[in-house]
Amino acid sequence: MLVRTFAVCVTAIVLSMSSQAHAAPSFDCSNASLPDEKAICANVDLSALDVAISDGYKRLVARLGRAVANNLHATFLRQRHACKSDTACISQVGSAEMPIFTLADPGFQVPTGLGAPPVLPYDTLKTQLKIGECTLSTITELGPRLCSADATGNCPENLPFDDSGNTVGSANNFSGVSYDRIPALEKSSKEDVVLICLKSIPKGCPKDDDRGYFWRWKDLRTSGQWELPDSEHMCGGA
Q1: Phi-psi region for residue 146, left (φ > 0), alpha (ψ -120 to 50) or beta?
Q2: How many beta carbons lie within 10 A of that of residue 126, not counting itself?
Q3: How do the domains of the chain map onto residue ranges?
Q4: pLDDT in tens, 130-174
Q5: Is the per-residue pLDDT at 82 higher than 90?
Q6: What DSSP line would sit under 53-92, residue for residue?
Q7: How far, in Å, are 57, 160, 218, 237 from residue 143 at the CA level?
């Protein structure tokens, strides 16, 4: 009986190891040609992460359409290819893609053991995105451009819009400001998911002053759209 039990245990271990060794990514490894693809095929954890990313991409297509999904995914693919065979880099780039999938579809499951995926800040994303490319975030700030501060020196919540224009901010520190009121923006609410796409990059700016990135925003709840710069003044201005 002891020998039989031992044999069963060994068989179970071998099957488990065989399952891990043959864990496959979302693509056919026999056609892998790029260094990052080969690294993924050779690594069980990266293969599992790739399967999760493939699932997330499919959810993007179902939620936003293939054109927008490809747009959102383009930055990730470019960065992953740039990692070449660096497994830590591939893992980091893949982890950074997770918040986009969860925003597009709350039913998306982040792989177990991955930890809290990083939310890339504005200063990082604005240098990574090419014109026309987008990211997803949530609205965290919404109000008039100017307001009368209360006794604490802060602008009170839910302040009515006035003729000073609008401001909007997102969870990853994107911001937009307008001297004119924007009806589509005023129909949005905090926590709304927004698609934010780079429209133009300021040129001829002084060193360390790159204000004036221009962004196109779309509220996925209301379908409202607007275009705003990230600052009241362009680079080199006041």
Answers
A1: beta
A2: 17
A3: 32-109, 122-229
A4: 999 999 999 998 888 887 666 666 666 556 667 788 899 999 999
A5: yes
A6: HHHHHHHHHHHH-HHHHHHHHHHHHHHHHHHTT-HHHHHH
A7: 33, 8, 17, 24
